[in-house]
Design brief:
Blueprint lengths: L2 H12 L9 H22 L1 H8 L8 E5 L7 E7 L2 E8 L2 E14 L3 E8 L8 E10 L2 E9 L13 E9 L11
Antiparallel strand pairs: 1-2, 1-8, 2-3, 3-4, 4-5, 5-6, 6-7, 7-8
């Protein structure tokens, strides 16, 4: 579609579409909806190309992830373990305990969702987490949301644990064997 066609189409809608006594509300509603219709049509036309460029798989999760929040930086080396993924806490370059255990729950063309547990300190109440791997500006990102309640709700406004992480290389630490 060309810009000329879209401009004429918009003018046609705003002018009443050739009908003299068309209500003004319908014209403005159509004018407001037009950009969304065009965007939707463009997304359908270019869906194959966008899908191929932004395709993620669970394999994008493996590696070293560094928290982007200021303050105490959480660094996790995430690699596959058993049926899921495990994250080893890295403190000042030294491998620590396995603190994250997640399994893939959903995969789409632009994201991978995981759910599991995060236990930052031994014996402390774990966070039930939902993690999401996605891509922004061709860089993989990992977002972890955690709640201390077992009935994790995605509809919360805030979470007790939030971490936005960026990938910084390959995982060097291996997860320990699960003892429980």
């Amino acid at each position: 579609m060309t810009v000329t066609f879209l401009t004429r189409f918009r003018d046609f809608i705003l002018a009443g579409g050739g009908r003299r006594h068309r209500p003004k509300f319908a014209r403005w509603a159509a004018a407001i909806a037009l950009p969304f219709v065009v965007a939707n049509a463009a997304s359908v036309c270019f869906a194959g190309k966008a899908h191929a460029e932004s395709d993620l798989s669970a394999l994008a999760l493996g590696g070293r992830w560094v928290d982007e929040m200021p303050g105490d930086k959480l660094v996790l080396d995430i690699s596959s373990c058993g049926e899921g993924w495990c994250g080893v806490n890295v403190v000042e370059g030294v491998c620590g305990a396995t603190v994250l255990r997640v399994k893939q729950s959903k995969e789409g063309p632009e994201f991978v969702s995981l759910s599991g547990k995060l236990e930052l300190a031994p014996g402390a109440q774990p966070y039930f987490v939902r993690a999401r791997v996605f891509r922004t500006n061709d860089a993989p990102r990992l977002q972890i949301l955690g709640d201390s309640r077992a009935d994790f709700s995605v509809m919360r406004r805030s979470y007790p644990f939030v971490s936005n992480m960026a990938r910084s290389g390959d995982a060097l630490c291996r997860p320990d064997a699960k003892t429980s």
